[in-house]
């Protein structure tokens, strides 16, 4: 699969580089491109260029008129890359740009984020369990309060019965 690379090639003053050769030299073998093959595109009168680049890694050279070609950088073209200008591809980060310590720190951050997510999930689970426990305790307290109320009523009833019996006993003893 190819990716469209198009735009206008201009110098630092914004002047179009017409008739300039944009040369792509393949750096690696891919399913579409053989290493060390060369693609050569020439810019139009206003520096415009447009070509379909196959997925791969390339050294990019410019050559104008009789001057020697010179390297302007490396590009990586991926199957899922979006169309863009040559500068877009030249300034894009590739895995070669990432130093091992950057990759290591990134992997540590990913691991830390994973641990944080797991801790958050555990906290959420525990919070749910605590809420369920609190609801159960509330229900138990209500049951106990109901039982205490029933017992208080039974005690009051028994007190009345005892007072009545005591009164009757006192009356019977007086006779």
From TrEMBL:
Pfam families: phage_tail_N (PF08400). The keyword 4Fe-4S does not apply. Keywords: Coiled coil. Residues 1-134 form the Lambda-like tail fibre protein N-terminal domain. SUPFAM superfamilies: Carboxypeptidase regulatory domain-like. Residues 103-165 form a coiled coil. It comes from the Bacteria. This is Shikimate transporter. It comes from Salmonella enterica I. The lineage of its organism: Bacteria, Pseudomonadati, Pseudomonadota, Gammaproteobacteria, Enterobacterales.
């Amino acid at each position: 699969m190819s990716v469209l690379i198009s735009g206008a090639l201009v110098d630092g003053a914004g002047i179009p580089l017409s008739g300039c050769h944009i040369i792509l030299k393949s750096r690696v073998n891919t399913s579409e491109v053989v290493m060390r093959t060369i693609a050569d595109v020439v810019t139009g009168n206003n520096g415009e260029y447009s070509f379909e680049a196959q997925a791969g890694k390339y050294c990019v050279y410019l050559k104008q008129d009789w001057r020697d070609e010179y390297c302007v950088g490396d590009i990586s073209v991926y199957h899922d890359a979006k169309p863009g200008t040559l500068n877009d591809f030249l300034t894009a980060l590739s895995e070669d740009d990432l130093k091992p310590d950057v990759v290591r720190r990134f992997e540590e951050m990913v691991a830390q984020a994973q641990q944080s997510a797991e801790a958050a999930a555990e906290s959420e689970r525990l919070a749910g369990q605590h809420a369920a426990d609190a609801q159960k305790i509330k229900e138990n307290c209500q049951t106990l309060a109901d039982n205490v109320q029933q017992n208080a009523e039974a005690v009051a009833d028994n007190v009345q019965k005892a007072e009545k019996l005591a009164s009757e006993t006192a009356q019977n003893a007086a006779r």
